[in-house]
Amino acid sequence: MTQEELRKVQMLQLEMAKEVKRICEKHQIQYFLDAGSMLGAVRHKGFIPWDDDLDIGFLREEYDRFLKIAPQELAGQYYIQNSNTDDDCGLTFSKIRLKGTRFVESISCQKDSAKEIYIDLFSYDNRNNDEKEAIKEAKKFRIFAHLLLIKCKTYVWKGQGLIKWLKFLPFRFWALFYTKKELHARIHRLTALHRQKNDCKNVFVHEGTSAHEWYFPKKILEDLIQIPFEGELFSVPRGYDAFLTKAYGNYMEIPSKEKRKTHHIIELDFGVYK
Q1: Max CA pair span of the chain
Q2: Using CA atoms, how far apart are residues 177 and 170, in angstroms rounded to an integer?
Q3: By residue range, what is the domain housing residue 19?
Q4: Which end of the chain is more exposed for a tag (fewer CB within 10 A), N or C?
Q5: Looking at residue 23, what DSSP letter applies?
Q6: Residue 232: enclosing H or E segment and its boundaries?
Q7: Is residue 136 situated within a structural domain?
Q8: Which of 117, 159, 158 is nearest to 5 (CA)?
Q9: Model pTM?
Q10: Residues contacting residue 91 through CB under 8 Å, at least 6 positions apart
Q11: Which residues face 35 on adjacent strands?
């Protein structure tokens, strides 16, 4: 993907994020730029120059409200994809995709579900206050999430070398003994354990491959402000410094060229957006 193509992808993703913002503001749903998109807003006032995705986060209740409302509200060129709308999705979170485009990543090129330009929507769930139990639950979540990805032909070890190929060999064997339905059910039960509790201090991202380390004080994500992102105002946590420091360390330091990674895109077609 050329720099010009990357920038075009980013601008299409920006339009998708603006649509999420419109719906959230109309229905008073709290959202925030998440992960690399939050970092981009703080450090670059827009996309990280080499970033090819856009992440939006919600606390669980807000996420569920958005998913209930959005199908009726989204502009016609967009649609929501998750395990409820696409049995071959294999993800524990949701995406909004742009109809009529192609955006094929090497790790998921063999899967049967949709492959269009997208933005990611993540929910944050309550985390066990007992640290030892929280770690156990996160490890189980990670295992089931990896098994689900394999069942849906998303091969995260692809192109990562022999060591990673060997690391995931047992998962490929275990996946033979589960159906996608069983894995979805196990993930739901596991991550809903503390959903109705009001005393949980931390929340974790509902994305199984990183939930064991991607967790933050809930209060950080409850108090939001707006800052510029590509000339638009988007919500981020008021405590973004604490979030980004935990997530990335010295986040204002620009990484070396070797660490500026994008997804490995093997097919890109803008369709009518050329």
Answers
A1: 51
A2: 12
A3: 3-126+200-273
A4: C
A5: H
A6: strand 232-237
A7: no
A8: 117
A9: 0.91
A10: 82, 83, 149, 207
A11: none
SS3 30: coil
Question: What region, left, alpha or beta, does residue 129 occupy, with left being phi > 0 and alpha being psi -120 to 50 degrees?
Answer: alpha
Contacts of 256 (CB under 8 A, 6+ apart): none
C-alpha 121/C-alpha 128 separation (Å) is: 23
Query: What are the residues facing 232 on neighbouring strands?
Result: 229
Domain of residue 31, CATH code: 3.30.460
149 assigned to some structural domain? no
Residue located via tokens 């990673």: 164
Cα distance between residue 121 and residue 226, in whole Å: 18
Token code pair at residue 182: 């069983």
- Residue 256: phi and psi, rounded to 5, are -65, 160
CA dist 76 and 18 (Å) reads: 14
Residue 190 in any domain: the answer is no
Q: 175 in helix, strand or coil? A: helix
Tens-digit pLDDT profile for residues 238-274: 999 999 999 999 999 998 887 777 777 878 999 998 8
- pLDDT tens digits, 121-155: 999 999 999 999 999 999 999 999 999 988 888 77
3-state secondary structure of 40: helix
Number of domains making up the chain: 1
- Examine residue 189 and state whether it is found in any structural domain, yes or no: no
Task: Give ∠ CA 245-160-175 in degrees, rounded to 5.
Answer: 95
SS3 102: strand
Angle at 16 between CA 154 and CA 86, to 5 degrees: 35
How many of the other CB atoms lie within 10 Å of CB of 242? 14
Q: Are 63 and 76 in contact (CB under 8 A)?
A: no
Section 216-244 average pLDDT: 95
